[in-house]
Write a structure and sequence with these properties.
Shape: globular
Radius of gyration: 15 Å
Helix content: 55-70%
Number of domains: 1
Order of helices and strands: HHHHHHEE
Strand content: 5-15%
């Protein structure tokens, strides 16, 4: 996963997302992607959920890089759910923490929530992030008002 993170950071640098955007703009993007996650959950669509989780992690990586905060997705591979039920309100609270607090753990808590949701749908965070990177690695687009807009949406 560390190599994927480095690849995404480089992808973002190459498209001027680190210096050409702001953490506030990335927070808006994070909320947009969270809406897509909610759509996948509402439709009980595992592929939409996988795509959204990966996209959320990509945005967190970019936002953390802008804030000069190292990002360490906790390795959850051996974690057990023990009857855990995904709670959307906890995820929303973690999103709030990402914007509000400055400690290093804010992303790890959100990744923990995403990890549980991924496992419920038989994915790992690495699966989701690899899928997202595969989707964006050759993507073209442009910056508009500090937000990266993919070519298909121009």
């Amino acid at each position: 996963m560390q190599q994927l993170i480095k690849n995404i950071e480089q992808w973002a640098e190459d498209r001027n997302l680190i210096n050409g955007s702001t953490p506030q703009k990335q927070m808006l993007k994070l909320m947009e992607e969270f809406g897509e996650l909610c759509g996948g959950i509402a439709r009980n669509n595992p592929e939409m959920i996988k795509d959204a989780i990966g996209d959320l992690i990509v945005v967190c990586i970019i936002k953390a890089k802008q804030e000069k905060q190292p990002i360490y997705p906790v390795q959850f591979e051996n974690h057990r759910l023990n009857g855990y039920r995904f709670d959307i309100s906890v995820a929303v609270h973690c999103l709030y923490d990402i914007e509000r607090i400055k400690d290093r753990g804010k992303y790890s808590r959100f990744f923990g929530i995403l990890h549980h949701l991924a496992l419920i749908n038989r994915f790992t965070l690495n699966d989701c992030l690899a899928h997202a990177y595969d989707q964006i690695k050759d993507r073209k687009g442009e910056m508009q008002a500090g937000i990266w807009v993919k070519e298909d949406d121009l």
